[in-house]
């Protein structure tokens, strides 16, 4: 990485964690340079007018003045989670690490409330063997963020159709299918509905009562991984 690129990357790293500090040693390790080089780079940024300042003490380091950083990015929680899912498809490619850094910067720049909702939504998405390549109807994809009881028509594996009222709890994705995990009022238990077997979907005005989804409710093979925005 040349010096110009490193100076830009230093600012972006400090912006992502502002107002928390990063130590010179941490930054040196991150950019694979010496502590002295980091100190020279920070001095150059300060002389150019970049609002970087030093905090002393055991937990101190360099900070970027949050009042002079870019305003929060207006990404929605759904958009942040979509970025996290796209990132999973980059696993094993040279672009995975840069994309993960970009996602962390995105979440750090969001409004605090939106970032918290995005993390909650991500915690309810579980993957087995990577993110599926298949898509699902938009109204089904919005099931968790909508926070409403759904009325659906559903065909089981033999093709028998039924109508259900369900309370969405989570998504589970495999390389070939998405499943909507929900409390089924017809069966009075947790059920996993394969999204390509869901027919009509109606969103009601009813907000379901809070329900906790236990690990045992997800009757799927080992290798379950929770989606993360970290």
Describe the structure.
This protein is an alpha+beta fold and 230 residues long. The chain folds into three domains: 66 residues, Arc Repressor Mutant, subunit A (Orthogonal Bundle), CATH 1.10.10; 46 residues; 102 residues, no CATH class. 35% of the residues lie in helices and 23% in strands. The protein is built from eight helices and nine strands. A hairpin with a 4-residue loop joins strand 5 and strand 6. Helix 4 packs antiparallel against helix 5.
Produce a short descriptive summary.
With 230 residues, this protein is an alpha+beta fold. The protein folds into 3 domains: 3-68, Arc Repressor Mutant, subunit A; 77-122; 125-226, no CATH class. It has 8 helices and 9 strands.
SSE arrangement:
Layout: H1 3-17, H2 24-31, H3 35-47, E1 52-55, E2 61-64, H4 77-88, H5 96-109, H6 112-122, E3 125-128, H7 138-141, H8 143-146, E4 150-155, E5 161-173, E6 178-184, E7 189-194, E8 198-203, E9 224-226
Parallel strand pairs: 3-5
Antiparallel strand pairs: 1-2, 3-9, 4-5, 4-8, 5-6, 6-7
Helix pairs in contact: 1-5, 2-3, 4-5, 4-6
Number of helices: 8
* Unreliable spans: none
| Rg (CA only) | 22 Å
Number of strands: 9
User: Mean pLDDT across all residues, rounded?
Assistant: 83
User: What percent of residues adopt helix (DSSP H or I)?
Assistant: 25-40%
Distance between the termini: 24 Å
Pfam family, one: HTH_11
Protein name: Transcriptional regulator
InterPro entries: CBASS_pafABC_assoc_protein, HTH_11, WH-like_DNA-bd_sf, WH_DNA-bd_sf, WYL_dom
Organism: Paractinoplanes rishiriensis
């Amino acid at each position: 990485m040349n010096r110009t690129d490193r100076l830009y990357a230093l600012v972006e790293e400090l912006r992502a964690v502002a107002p928390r500090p990063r130590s010179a040693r941490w930054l040196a390790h991150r950019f694979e340079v010496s502590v002295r080089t980091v100190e020279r780079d920070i001095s150059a940024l300060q002389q150019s007018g970049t609002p970087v300042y030093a905090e002393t003490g055991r937990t101190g380091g360099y900070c970027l003045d949050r009042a002079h950083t870019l305003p929060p990015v207006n990404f929605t929680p759904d958009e942040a989670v979509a970025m996290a899912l796209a990132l999973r498809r980059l696993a094993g490619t040279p672009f995975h690490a840069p994309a993960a850094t970009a996602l962390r910067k995105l979440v750090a720049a969001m409004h605090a409330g939106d970032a918290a909702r995005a993390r909650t939504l991500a915690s309810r998405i579980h993957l087995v063997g990577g993110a599926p390549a298949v898509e699902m109807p938009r109204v089904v994809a919005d099931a968790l963020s909508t926070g409403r009881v759904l009325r659906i028509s559903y065909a089981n594996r033999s093709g028998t159709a039924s109508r259900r009222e369900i309370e969405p709890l989570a998504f589970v994705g495999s390389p070939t299918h998405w499943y909507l995990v929900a409390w089924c009022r017809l069966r009075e238990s947790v059920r996993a509905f394969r999204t390509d077997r869901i027919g009509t979907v109606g969103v009601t005005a009813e907000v379901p009562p809070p329900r906790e989804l236990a690990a045992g409710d997800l009757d799927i093979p080992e290798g379950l991984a929770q989606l993360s925005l970290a």
